[in-house]
Amino acid sequence: MAVANSASPFPPPFNIIAIAATVAGIAAAIASIPKPKAFANGGIVYGNTFAQVGEYPGAANNPEVIAPLSKLRQLIQPVSTGGGVYEFRLRGRDFVAVAAKYNNINDRTR
Questions:
Q1: CA-wise closest residue to 69 among 96, 51, 50, 92
Q2: pTM (predicted TM-score)
């Protein structure tokens, strides 16, 4: 009996309360871990953000781009479809690429 009592620093029922408090503390710590923000639908980040990227099933064929706006033009190479002008704009919190019909505009001015 002396061995059983020396194994626990708290006598019953305090040992059960101590175990319950420990389990509650661990559960609270796990619950406080922040969930990452998913960017499968795009978005603009204005500061330090805990993010999850490439999380959607089609990411292997349609990857996400993570880059400062100043570097984005270097990453996106326009597809050659007979020429065109691409303008990038911020509209609220959305980043929009606008393709102008450059050849049609030039033909009207000749």
A1: 96
A2: 0.39
Q: For residue 74, give both structure tokens.
A: 């270097």
For every residue of 42-77, DSSP letters joined together read -----S---EE-S-SGGGGTS------HHHHHHH-P
Pair 65, 54: CB distance under 8 Å: no
Nearest to 65 by CA among 74, 57, 34: 74
- The whole-angstrom separation of Cα 64 and Cα 58 is 10
- Rounded Cα–Cα distance for residues 61 and 57 (Å): 9
Average pLDDT, the chain: 75
User: Comparing 70 with 30, which gets the higher pLDDT?
Assistant: 30
The CA distance from 12 to 37, in Å, is 45
Over its C-alpha atoms, the chain yields an Rg (Å, rounded) of: 29
